[in-house]
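Handoff note, outgoing to incoming analyst
You'll be picking up this chain. Sequence as last confirmed:
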Amino acid sequence: MHINDRIQTFIEIGRILARFPLPVQDSEAQPLKEGEADPMQEGEADLLQEGEAQPLKEAVLEAQAANPWFTQDNIRYALNALGAALTSENLGRWIDPYRGKIERKRERVKTVGVVTAGNIPLAGFHDFLSVLLCGQRFCGKLSSQDAVLLKAIAGIMVKMNQRWEEYIHFIDKPFNSIDAIIATGSDNTYRYFEYYFSRYPHIIRKNRNSIAILDGNETGDELKGLVSDVMLYFGLGCRSVSKIYVPAGYDVMQLQPYFEPWDGLIHHYKYYNNYEYQKSIRIVNKKPFLDFGNLLLIEESRMASPVSVLNYERYAKVENLRAELQGQEDRIQCVISAFDAGLRYMLPGTAQKPELWDYADGVNTLHFLIDEI
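Most recent structure output, in case you need it:
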């Protein structure tokens, strides 16, 4: 299959995902309250061609039933974000520097095993996209927490062009006859993956956290964007901000009004249980915290925070903070900042909308697929 045909398929997939009904509450994909009506309401179906995306609509319902963290709004946000990324312009900008090498490898098709994460909807899509655009075969072992959405997209691709059947396979058993591996998991599974897949060319990812740096000059829109970076997907993504750094003397309570539009999260039983548990253990242990009603803020040096908790830490000079963080880059996925803090950063509100060239862990997947296998 020629690279232009592969790109065209993903442009069409992007069009379908971008037209998939938006989250019904607002563009920030705040989860619905438990028991509210199915948001796929009458009239929304007009935005989709029944034969084109009906399998995806069914997969959304199945994914929500299988994983309570996958609310329809969160799934829709993920689909729409991917749709916005999969444009002709973006795909061209991303692939064109590698086009010659990809074409030269057309006769040396390899099979790439991919182990996906299941923390947020379609966490493995970028690896799926990368493998197929490079002309390799995708052999996916999907997380049990996110086992239907990617298959639904693959099914739509096969309907568009039956040749995709030669390149896309999903398995539930151990890998057999693969040439390389891309695996994403926790710190514990990382050690297992390193041992088990050491004989293959590989990319193996482990836990990372995202942080934000404030200087006190953020606008209301920037703070609103930051809050979405914290709260989207219940904070479960590696791109979800788990800790903020604020200047000495900064009043973190001024952030509370920006979190109020996300009060709907507290009606999600799993999130609420985490929120109540974290609050209870802080009270029992007489540990200080700030309660925003839908999130706890805790002054803490660690980057990682539990669901329903946002850590914060004060800094005296941004130069010193920069030097400290540069020594911890292997633990950081994203740095969110409205100003140039001297680090590779993203603007508030963009953490969950990565560009195609924003590689997980900073590892260039295309380079690996083209030059290392």
